[in-house]
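Give me the fold.
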Amino acid sequence: MRVLLAAPSSPARLHTLVPLAWALRTAGHDVKIAGRPALVEDILRTGCVAVELEDGDAELTESAALAEFARLWRPAVVVSNADAGIAAAREVDAKAVRVLGPADEPDAAADHTLDVVPPSLRDTPGQPLRHVPYFGPVEVPTWLRRKARRPRVLLSLNDPSWYEPVFTALSDVDYEIICAAELPAGLALPPKVKLVDAAPPAAVLPTCAAVVHDGDETLALAAVAYGLPQLSLTESAFGTRVTAAGAGISGAAEGISRLTDESLRAGADALRAEVAASPAPREVAAALAS
């Protein structure tokens, strides 16, 4: 069976599709991932076959290029987390499958809607698909080859202005804070913070007790899959749902002192169990082929 996956020009959205792509390939199907030129290297790093679509800023351009390749290759299934993939599937009478990530909302346009977000974190969930966190190729850092003596917390921030309030809040906690970043000039590094060259989430998260971020929904969903309590320093739709499920906190940096609370651990464990109970990518791949 020929399966065409269409990735928007976002590595995070591409990574959401990769576990299903691997499952389809190992089941013996012919799988290709289409994307714009800027995304081709990211596609190749997944180990999959890439299809370069013509460049352009308009969504219509990408949709037209994707439909053109679909007419040439004639896939039986088109998998995407964008409207362009559904349009391409309709062009060739293929099965249209949409994969929803944490930033997506369900719609009725696809034949099948797969959802990597646990059902309890959705108002209207799609068909469950177990989330397998993937961040691209990683190497286990040398510093990680030792057991943490204190609860390890991954600190991952996109906005450097958060470092100062987070560091100030560390006086009340006994954690090992892992951070891979270039800190703002003049900011003192607290003794509890371990500044490292690299902290790839796929390698670091299984060793952690909690996560602190500033609204990164990809990292937030990975924390859910690993059963880790999390502090989101900024408000987001997904972070609000995690907080409502009792698995996280949203708001001020002072919340970091609560990350080892038993109530948060219980909420995070419940979400991890929900993820683990969802059908694995290989099961979903088999269903798509039937």
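The chain has a mean pLDDT of 93.
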